[in-house]
Amino acid sequence: MDDKSLQVIDERVQTWLRTLDEMIPNLVKDMQLSTKQNRYDLVTNVDRTIQNDFESFLHEHCPQHQLLAEEKSNEDINPKRGHTWVMDPIDGTMNLVKQQEDYCIILAYFIDGQPMLSYIYDYPRQQLYHAKRGSGAYVNGKKLPTPPHIPLQEGILSFGAQFVNAETLNDLFEAAFSYRSIGACGLDSIRVIKGQFAAHFNTNPKPWDIAAQFLFAEELGLRMTTLDGEEIDFTKAGPFIISNSGCHQEVLDILNSKGGYI
Ligand code: IPD
Ligand code: CA
Ligand code: CA
Question: How many Å lie between the centroid of ligand 3 and the Cα of residue 175?
Fold first, then answer.
C-alpha cells in the first residue's frame, strides 16, 4: 500500500475514534453489565456498541478489510492474509465498571501480518496514542520520543501479581525499583511506551490486548516478545512482555529461573 492510501485510512480512523467522545458518555450513563465465562469476565453495552460501530465503519469505508475483535466470533477470518484490523473495544472493562477510569480502546491494522497503523485511545484522559509504520509514534499529534535506557533496578515493573508464583514474585519485587499495575493491558503498555514504566508483562493476553503494541514497540526501539524471548504471533498472542531494552533480558531471566508464572 502506498503512503497516501495509508494516510487516508489513518485520518479516517482517527476521525472515527474521536466520534467516541460523543458516544461514550451516553453509553456509560446507561451502562448495562453482563458476565461471560465467570463473574470477573465482564462485558458492557459500551464494549459492544463501540465494536459494532467500528464494524459498520469498516463495511462502509473498507469493505474488503477483516475484523478480529474480542466481542465477536472470529472463526470465519484468516488474519494473516490481506487487510486485518484487531480491536479491543474496551480494554480494562473492570476499571470502566468499578471506577469509570483507566480504560482504553485498542485498535491495530495489519497488512499480510505486518503492523501498519496502531491506536490506543485513553478516552478518560483524552489522549490518543497513534503509530504509523516508518513515521514514529504520537500522542494527540505530538511525536513521542524514544524512551531512555531504564535498568530494572531504576524502573517500575507492571504485571498481574496474582499470576506469578511466590518465589519469582519476591525476586521481581527485589530486582525492580518498584511495582505498579493499572489493570488495562493497553494503558500499562502505554506507560512503557512513554518511558514511565520499565516493563509490563501479561501471562495470558489475547490478540486484541496486545495488537497495537507491536508497532509502538517497533517505532520506539522497545522489546516486545513472548516470556521466553521469542517472537509473538499476533493472531494467537499468549504470554507477552513489552519492555525497555535496558531490562528486558533481566526480567525474563528472573521470570524463568524459579517458580515462574501460572
Ligand atoms: C484485560 C485487561 C487486564 C489484563 C487482562 C485483559 P479486558 O482486558 O487488559 O489488564 O490483565 O489479561 O483480559 O477484559 O478488560 O478487555
Ligand atoms: Ca483487553
Ligand atoms: Ca475488552
Answer: 31
Domains of the chain: 3-143 (3.30.540.10), 152-257 (3.40.190.80)
Q: Work out the pLDDT band at 141, boundaries 50, 70, 90.
A: very high
CB of 138 closer than 8 Å to CB of 118: no
Atom of ligand 1 nearest to the CA of 90: 16
More confident of the two residues 197 and 41 = 197
What is the average pLDDT value for the chain, to the nearest integer?
97
For ligand 1, atom 15, which residue shows the shortest CA distance?
Answer: 92
pLDDT of 237 above 90: yes
Ligand 1, pocket residues at CB < 6 Å: 88, 91-94, 160, 183-185, 202, 205, 209
Ligand 3 center to 82 CA (angstroms): 24
What is the number of the ligand 1 atom nearest to the C-alpha of 47? 16
Whether 259 has a pLDDT exceeding 80, the answer reads: no
Condensed to tens digits (0 to 9), the pLDDT of residues 8-26 reads: 999 999 999 999 999 999 9
Q: What is the value of pTM for the model shown?
A: 0.97
- Find the ligand nearest to 97 CA: 1
Q: Are 110 and 116 in contact (CB under 8 A)?
A: yes
